[in-house]
Amino acid sequence: MDNNRTMFGIPDEEFIRDKVPMTKSEVRAIAISKLRLNPTSRVLDIGCGTGSITVECGLICNQGEVTAIDQKEEAVNITRKNVNKFELNNVNIIEGSAPNDIPKKNYDSIFLGGGSRHIDNIIDFATDHLVPEGVFVANTILIDSTYKILAALEGRFKDIDVAMVQVSKGHKIAGWMMKANNPIYIISARLM
Amino acid sequence: MDNNRTMFGIPDEEFIRDKVPMTKSEVRAIAISKLRLNPTSRVLDIGCGTGSITVECGLICNQGEVTAIDQKEEAVNITRKNVNKFELNNVNIIEGSAPNDIPKKNYDSIFLGGGSRHIDNIIDFATDHLVPEGVFVANTILIDSTYKILAALEGRFKDIDVAMVQVSKGHKIAGWMMKANNPIYIISARLM
């Protein structure tokens, strides 16, 4: 790995985009910080979308590996383009649905990038496949998913934490005008 | 360095605290992401406070170095305690005022952790001592500092970006109640 390239904090505009949703840089930074990564971490990114979380985890975990899954073909394709752009060789990308098509390996950190119709099954999977003290992180926009994830973590996970983050970005008009992004919930917890 | 310890995303409660202010984990994650660090970065942390930014930069830049400065003796002491706790040997801590007492070296990334009576002088210093494309990041709570920093960056820095971040944290009462932290501005820019 080139020691002089940015290892964390890739600006949004450096990712190849499409119609696929992307977690914006500020929220991405928080989610990644909650994943408690180290260079050897084995990370699972469920619902990888554009692949921005996949790429940033791949850069940090340069002696570990990232498994990325999305059910949409176009998300898998764009994630692959971004993984290639950042010259990562530690990422495994899967087109399929979670949790059924996720490789049944051990993971140190699992990220769920949005809601799912299978929240309970995904958290069952996390409970079975995270290492002890392994970290589960989810970003949600719906109150419904937020509530369901918090409820499903209870009793099996510890250090359950939820942050609601509302970012406004400055736009230079005559002066600086702040324009609001939608509030995002970032949930994190460790397996007991 | 131990490859298995968390390299980024240290929870707030793992830092030794005192009456010195500390940037909370979510805002810290964003600020660090804006610093565009790599393992060899030379970072300057102005107003290091508790030393949480210093420590996280020291962990990421394990082949680089961090210079931390604060004018308060108790901030310098607590930063030193935290640097020792995390067993970092790439951090230089200075008790003194910015910019006068900052070592006149080249830096890849400079972080200003709050306002200062010397904003213009600090940004002059950053202009003189950042490498080309080097990154300046500031966290502010006052509109006044936010405005002054944005105005001082203009014309000498590019990619000027400002995010206002408002984090609410969940507290488990009967159910999850969100309690608001104060909004923080995170300004970032690169030297032209």
TrEMBL record, chains A, B:
GO molecular function term, any single one: protein methyltransferase activity
BP GO annotations: cobalamin biosynthetic process; methylation
Pathway stated in the Swiss-Prot or TrEMBL entry: Cofactor biosynthesis; adenosylcobalamin biosynthesis
Pfam families in alphabetical order: Methyltransf_31
Domain Methyltransferase: 40-113
Keyword rRNA processing: no
CDD domains reported for this sequence: AdoMet_MTases (cd02440)
InterPro entries referenced in this protein's UniProt entry, alphabetically: Cbl_synth_MTase_CbiT, Cobalamin_biosynth_MTase, Methyltranfer_dom, SAM-dependent_MTases_sf
The protein, known as: Cobalt-precorrin-6Y C(15)-methyltransferase
The organism of origin for this protein: Vallitalea longa
Taxonomic path: Bacteria, Bacillati, Bacillota, Clostridia, Lachnospirales
Record keywords: Cobalamin biosynthesis, Methyltransferase, S-adenosyl-L-methionine, Transferase
